[in-house]
Amino acid sequence: MKVVLATRNRGKVSELQALLKDLNIEVVPIDEAGDIPEVIEDGSTFYDNAMKKAREVSAASGLVAIADDSGLEVDSLGGRPGVFSARYAGEHATDEENYLKLLDAMKDVPVEERTARFRCVMVACSPDGSCISSEGTCEGIIAKSPRGSQGFGYDPVFIPSGESRTMAELSKEEKNRISHRAKALDSLKRKLKYFLEEQCTN
C-alpha cells in the first residue's frame, strides 16, 4: 500500500521514511502524490493543524495521508513559539533565523529556567475521512548557543534531558530513539497496521 507524507519539509520526510521503513508500505513524499494544493496551517493547536493537513492531503491524493504538526514549547516564554515554531522569526524565516530569535529572547534566562519540550501530534487519515492520531514529547532545555550540524529546526539549541549534547549533535539513530516525532510515530504505528488493513478491506 502507498501512503503519502503530508509535508514538504525534506528533513521530516527523511526522518519519517526511516521511522516507517519496517512497515510493509510504500511511503512517498507529497511532491510525488500528484498535484496537491498547499494546506494553510491556521489551527490554534498542533492537533488542529495535523488533522487539517492529513484530511486535505488524503482527499486530494486519494491515498492514506500521514501528517504531523510539531514545535518547540519554552516554559519561560509561556509555551512559545508553539504552533508558530516554523515561522517564529517571520513567515519565510530560516531555521537559523528562528533559533537565533529564540536565543535572543532568552538571553537573560538562567539555566534552571530554560526548560522546554518538543511536542509532536501525528494524524493518519484515509480518503473516506476516518482518522487516527497520536502524540509524543521530548523534554529538555535550551542551550545558550547553537551546536551541531545534524537535524533541522531548533535541534542546534535543544539539549534533551539526560544529555550534554544538543539534538543536532546526536546521530540520526540516536535522535530517532528519543525524539518527539519518533515517540508519536511509534504510538501511531501500533494503530496504523490495523487502520491500513481496514482500508484494504473496505
Molecular structure report:
With 202 residues, the chain is of the alpha/beta class. The protein has one domain (2-201): Maf protein (Alpha-Beta Complex), CATH 3.90.950. The protein is 33% helix and 22% strand. The protein has 5 helices and 6 strands, in the order βαβαβαβββαα. It has helices at 10-20, 46-61, 95-105, 172-178, 180-201; strands at residues 2-5, 26-29, 64-74, 115-125, 131-142, 158-160. Strands 2-1-3-4-5-6 form a 6-stranded mixed sheet. Helix 4 (172-178) crosses helix 5 (180-201). The protein starts with a strand and ends with a helix. 38% of the residues are buried. The model has no long low-confidence stretch (mean pLDDT 91).
Number of strands: 6
Query: Which consecutive residue ranges, at least 5 long each, have pLDDT under 50?
Result: none
In percent terms, what proportion of residues is strand?
A: 15-25%
Q: Tell me the major beta sheet.
A: 6 strands, mixed
Quick one: CATH class? Answer: Alpha Beta
- With helices defined by DSSP (H or I, 4 residues minimum), what is the helix count? 5
Number of domains: 1
CATH topology tier name:
Maf protein
Approximate helicity band: 25-40%
Mean pLDDT: 91
Which word captures the global form?
Answer: globular
Structural class: alpha/beta
The radius of gyration computed from the alpha-carbon positions, rounded to a whole number of angstroms, is 17 Å
Order of helices and strands: EHEHEHEEEHH
Spatial order of strands in the largest sheet? 2-1-3-4-5-6
Please report the distance between the alpha carbons of the first and last residues.
Answer: 14 Å
